[in-house]
Amino acid sequence: MTQTNTDMKVNPDLAMERAKCNFNVLEVTHIFDGGENNTLMRKKIEDVALNSGAWKDTLGDEHMSPKEKYENAVRKSCLYASMMKNELAELSGLESFGVSSPVIRRTADAFFKEVSPFLLHLGMFVPTIMGQCTPEQQSHWLPRALDMQIIGTYAQTELGHGTFIRGLETTATYDPETEEFVLHSPTLSSYKWWAGGLGNTVNYCIVVAQLYTKGECHGTHPFIVQIRDEDNHMPLPGIKVGEIGPKMGFNTADNGFLGFNKHRIPREHMLMKNAQVLKDGTYVKVARHGKLTYGTMVFVRVVLVNEVAFNLAKACTIAVRYSAIRRQSRPKPDEAEPQVLDYATQQHKLFIAIATAHALQLCSTWLWESFSAVLAQMKGGNTDTLPEFHALSSCLKAISTSDSAHLIEQCRHACGGHGYMISSGIPHLYNFVSATRTYEGDYTVLLLQTARFLVKAYEQAEAKQPLTPTVAYLAYAFSGSKTTWDSSPDGIIRSFQALSAGKVASCVANMRTRMRAGLSQVDAWEMSTIQLVAAAEAHCRAVISDTYRKEIVRLTANSSPNVKVVMDQLTTLYLYYWALERTGDLLMYTSVSQKDLADLQIAYEALLSKIRPNAVGLVDAFDLRDELLHSALGSYDGRVYERLMEEALKSPMNKEPVNDAYSKYLRPMMKGKL
Amino acid sequence: MTQTNTDMKVNPDLAMERAKCNFNVLEVTHIFDGGENNTLMRKKIEDVALNSGAWKDTLGDEHMSPKEKYENAVRKSCLYASMMKNELAELSGLESFGVSSPVIRRTADAFFKEVSPFLLHLGMFVPTIMGQCTPEQQSHWLPRALDMQIIGTYAQTELGHGTFIRGLETTATYDPETEEFVLHSPTLSSYKWWAGGLGNTVNYCIVVAQLYTKGECHGTHPFIVQIRDEDNHMPLPGIKVGEIGPKMGFNTADNGFLGFNKHRIPREHMLMKNAQVLKDGTYVKVARHGKLTYGTMVFVRVVLVNEVAFNLAKACTIAVRYSAIRRQSRPKPDEAEPQVLDYATQQHKLFIAIATAHALQLCSTWLWESFSAVLAQMKGGNTDTLPEFHALSSCLKAISTSDSAHLIEQCRHACGGHGYMISSGIPHLYNFVSATRTYEGDYTVLLLQTARFLVKAYEQAEAKQPLTPTVAYLAYAFSGSKTTWDSSPDGIIRSFQALSAGKVASCVANMRTRMRAGLSQVDAWEMSTIQLVAAAEAHCRAVISDTYRKEIVRLTANSSPNVKVVMDQLTTLYLYYWALERTGDLLMYTSVSQKDLADLQIAYEALLSKIRPNAVGLVDAFDLRDELLHSALGSYDGRVYERLMEEALKSPMNKEPVNDAYSKYLRPMMKGKL
């Protein structure tokens, strides 16, 4: 471990845990980094980004007002941007990671407990210019954007309109007289709302608006709009822009609102790669390959899955290390208070979180690699598997964000009261991940998209048509008998597939019954959505289980024996855990018996005990530097109580022995003079 | 509704919902207030507490730093305390509510989005003086405390010690020479930590410490300790006191730490009702009735259950009203975008939250009334049912706080992105309720206490001994056959009891197997704790279901027909919802079939549609004034988008067109001069 050095005084309980870990921690680190070379490169990047200490605050931003937090985040964003341009860019081999590489982005977590106000500049503004501009447009905008001479964001969502993009109200009406578009916000609900950085930071913005030309609406299109003066940053005339106010998290991101009062922009500011308006106002649709749109969407979701897995890994690290240090109760009067990590209920809360962090990280990589391979093959024009990848990325995004948020809270609960403190480092993880459940596609909406794909696939299976790989198992629904239960890992995965198939079949049956009773297809679908969401969740769980297991088997093929054992234990734990969470479905859709489930429960409890001695080693293998954890409870040295007190003493409320509120309010009241 | 007035412009969708509500909203309000008179009194209290506008901030505290928030909260606490002493105290009939009445405390929610720094003064300091002081001690301390000449808190938890009170390290050693106790914090982990108000506000504190006299330890006892000078509020010598730093919520409560360096207090400052140390150092245990301790504990938990139900009701009100206003997607191209409340998935998220708020409020009242009745009867000395009430209050506290936190998040998710904004009013509800899951007894620890009682009761049932009422159903475990499924409400409640009995039986069987295999009783218990927690949860669910149903039947006996119908629908919904969440257990422990469960799912979906037209009426019946909701999404008039924008414009970040961070950081970077 990089963080071990001879001077460091480590909590003796934590040192003992590390001594008894029976596998090679570094080997596991390499597995999840994608190989030893990647680990080395990651460490090099972290050294460059973190060792200077530029990320440090003199006063922690948890003590600041939202406005102060924002200003401090701008300060650090500029430092970070400069580092990206200079020190980090000079690292050899950097290009293999790319600018948006999660590995680099992760170092930003040392600088920002929440996020940088530049997040959408690199995350959406630049990629949209790359993806939706003509080459001429790109050559105009891209160099200035990459050099941060201009800073931009992406404004699509409106105050009254989110998921349903066709419902957006902002208009861009072409005026052939002046060869300009007139941007307008006809109502309050049409104000753009939420775009990160929009409030005070950016001077440019991609705006998605309904395009009108020659009296006809052609649907939503993107436009690049200057909103603030490049010299003094004042909002331009016809533009109303500001910040939307405090949120649960993302408070350093100055999410903003934006309204237009007949604001004019040049015709060339429409992003014209996929559609154009000619000088005379003629609308021309350019043939567009669906691949591109899918590509960006799948990529954004892959990054999100990766990011929530990373944040879940942080929560695990904090909660497991602290649980090895915290001692509580004395079930045996003649023994010391046990480490809380020794309690089965604690292991039950924490080990599934470790396994899930592994599972989601591997699924994210697997999805991206499979998708890239398919894209490469697809040059011939075969786009058959695109809907499958869209459906997969939808449900993976929904389930990974939801599972991670839930498990981060579970890690916090496992830390007792201290988990509630900001200095534990967990609350801001929850606030961040909890938001990812909603943005870039709401949980329920995404699962219903996957469900639509599953129902189509089911109908194909029914018609004996071939199925794409991840839904091939839907054939189980037509086997005529319940799938045979078998508690081996492969047996459990098969059962998860069987119950997903059973749930899809049940949804289809219900919808057909409702349609026979006279309901329209739309209404029958709507009335079945609760079950359709559950079916999509079951499908996703089956895919995650299968992928996690297969990837671990593949990636540990050459591992040392003990690494193989502990990785096998965790995949098995994931399967047992979810089987025990889905006993009703298993009883309905497989041959499992009450006795089988009772045995599985006992086997699950035994597995927890087996994983227990390696628990600290497992979270050490995430190799998360203290700078990224921001946690008094989770730091590598385990000086938990010392750090909690050190953090408390930093509070401005402890700078004076008596707060001003005493003489102003308390004293008059206590002396009866109020 | 009080909030309707002719000048108020109400969102037309919300007005339409109110017009179509088919039951008498006020009748339902009366049911949950406990009768019409209580409603009238509540409204009178709210008028007095809220109409003056004293609760208003010129700048919302979400825009402040934690220190500013605290100072503002002290200001308002003093205003509120003065109002309690004057205007509110003068209200006739007030005494029937009592000082700690939830009805009065709720009005404080208009003043504090989080809590008052005086919370533990009235909530713990005063009650401890009342409960644990001798009459002489009371006459010394109580008048000054009630008049707020001194302000106190209650410090038990230490940095390294929470639930396990015997593990506390702070010592109080009696010195007969000077007739004083010497308070000392021997280690960092022995520092008191968490007490609300301790950081900067209070000048007195109840301290729980290990009592040593004549060289012997007599366990933990409470002492009253002055910690700050009464004239200048400076910490006294030998006292180290401060604030513990920012938390997820409760940031206005200045939770504090406290350490002693051989700090001396007079012998009389030990609270001597239950035990005394005589002048010569002799320790005398005063005979103590268990009733008292149980009484306080049950009371605190009853108040907590009531409080989380109240906060859940707020979240429901916000999410249901907003869902009636928000429109999204267009499943039928020729129709307008539907209200999101029309979607089954949305109803699935929200209606269970309404039913749960009802269930928990009724359970809290029922528990308190039954317990009070038992206490009154108990003067003869019969304390048989005390363990039952302790077990009940433990699991009810655990399940109500956990369910409420989960459902508040579900309400937030139902509000999409806007639920993430502080101005939605939901995030601070979650932060508050989420803490209640841990304090006053952690979720897992409390459920294991209930489980211990259940296992004992099971063994009594096995030995054919009589059982107390709430566990009488454990006899099912010995019936020899599965309980017959029946989808009537009573049938489902019976099934919930059967599955709880089945789970307890299974735990006992596993523990016995483990003990036969050579494990000690302690180890066999520990290895079964995951299942024991699940059994206690099942027991609690059965009790809540049974109580909710019976109380509604009783309380609506004289209601108008439509009120009866809608209340019956909600209790039924609660039962269907939880049956569908526990299909595995039902299949194992009752005769339910796969077909029965499929039918139940369809019946559940139909029930959602039946409740839908009355949804806004149901949340209106909570009768929560806008001042208590603090929500742009949930206000009575439904001016959602106008209010979101109004709140945004209040942000200090919108006060200047260009933030200072531009000239300081952004401009130099963008102009390449960084």
UniProtKB/TrEMBL annotation, chains A, B:
Main location: other
List of catalytic residues: 440 (proton acceptor)
Subcellular location: Peroxisome
GO cellular component, one term: peroxisome
Domain Acyl-CoA oxidase C-alpha1, first and last residues per copy: 294-455
An annotated Gene Ontology molecular function: acyl-CoA oxidase activity
Acyl-CoA oxidase C-terminal domain sequence ranges: 489-671
Keyword Ubl conjugation belongs to the record: no
Metabolic or biological pathway, per its Swiss-Prot or TrEMBL entry: Lipid metabolism; peroxisomal fatty acid beta-oxidation
Family classification: Belongs to the acyl-CoA oxidase family.
Listed name of the protein: Acyl-coenzyme A oxidase
Lineage of producing organism: Eukaryota, Metazoa, Ecdysozoa, Arthropoda, Hexapoda
